[in-house]
Amino acid sequence: MNMKPFALVVAAASLALIAPLLSSHASAGDLNKEIPAALSDPVNPAPAEVAVLAGGCFWGQQGVFEHVKGVTKVVAGYSGGSKQAALYDRVSDGNTGHAESVEITFDPRQVSFGQLLRIYFSVAHNPTERDRQGPDEGTQYRSEIFAASPEQEATAKAYVAQLEAAHVFTASIATKVEPLKAFYPAEDFHQDYLVLNPDSSYIRINDLPKIAALKRVWPGFYQEKPVLLAGR
After folding, report:
1. Is 57 a known active-site residue?
2. What is the per-residue pLDDT across 115-130, written as a single tens digit (0 to 9) for each?
3. With respect to CATH, is domain 28-217 assigned 3.30.1060.10?
């Protein structure tokens, strides 16, 4: 969400008023529904794997994936730009190359990378939007998969092509797929923000519905208790 912490209260009140006027480019039927599994989803026998995904404000993305079975940690942060630019005030300008992202550590024996992408494309964000999600606009809110390995890159590109060929969405998928260069954790203020601020108007309007959709659409992947960062 593109704002300083002290402005959150004012912005939340404004969002509550304008939320009904906000619309996306995809039809309502495109989103929050079961979509096909990835046809190419190689088995990884390792005990842990990392995925870095971007799809709008990282508060909501972190909140969603903390409720996915097999996920052991989710960190909000920045990817796509330099280490020096990985600061909220700079990223919010939209010209650093960074996207607000989440680094998801998961057990691929319980949930595969392809299954995480299935959740990502169906309930975690709108993949047909370019440089925006909901009320947030700018390149820092783009839809992008930062592949942590050649296998992830191949799986992601094949899945995007599969969904496009099947016309799963009424609009074209805008999600970019690029190799991961680096991920930089965001400031402590942003970590577990959804869980710590469930009554925020921004969270209630934009993010809690994503978790409700995860529970409704993917009950087999849903866990009630979120996996929070250590010390929370």
Report:
1. yes
2. 999 999 999 999 999 9
3. yes
